[in-house]
Amino acid sequence: MRLQDFESRIATAETTADLWHALRGYFRDTPIQRVAYMHLPPLGAPDSPGMRSEGFPDGFEPEYMERRMYLDNPVLARAQRQVRPVYWDEVEDDELTPRERAFVEEVRAMGVGFGVGVPVYGPNGRRGQCGLGFREGVRRLDAATLREYWQVCELAHLRYCALVLPTLELPALSRREVEVLGWVARGKSNGLIGEILGISSATVDAHLRRIYLKLGVFDRISAAVRGIGTGLIHAEA
Asked: Model pTM?
């Protein structure tokens, strides 16, 4: 499947299942034998991490999620930190933490072979990664192919976000509550927020009590985290 055809196909995808089918279809008849897509919502978001995979050993996907193995995946961590695709065998054993080493040993025992982790990024800090496992005999991709695969994964992730975000139940804050929460996220006190917005400290406190109730939290830090995670405010706001 050409990149242009893939773009057209995912643009009309109405469900995440349609999107996954398109992504898997793109990699058919390529050097890629295994495909996994991991979605990692930001801290404070209402949804949980999710995964789809094909071509990996039976039971790998549910075990990976149930045991939260992604927290110990060194390829995922390094690809996110370096903002570039990371080949699975780039991670040196002497760089690993004990938990990461245990993860690598367990995955190697499954015989998944070689591959590359491709980081992807979306709105409001919604990141993820595509794990692309190579067919036998493949250890590296040429630069142009790797760039195209990275683009395909990023396009798929953005479409996933576009499909999922409207389905999430997000709290509704008033304009003033959003303003107050934005200043709370900047670390301002109630008194300073009142001066900035031209309202009393008591009024700020009343707004905060309503914000806590709507967000289901009990303190300022949790409110700020939830506000950023749900996209109600932005980290730089």
From this structure: 0.86
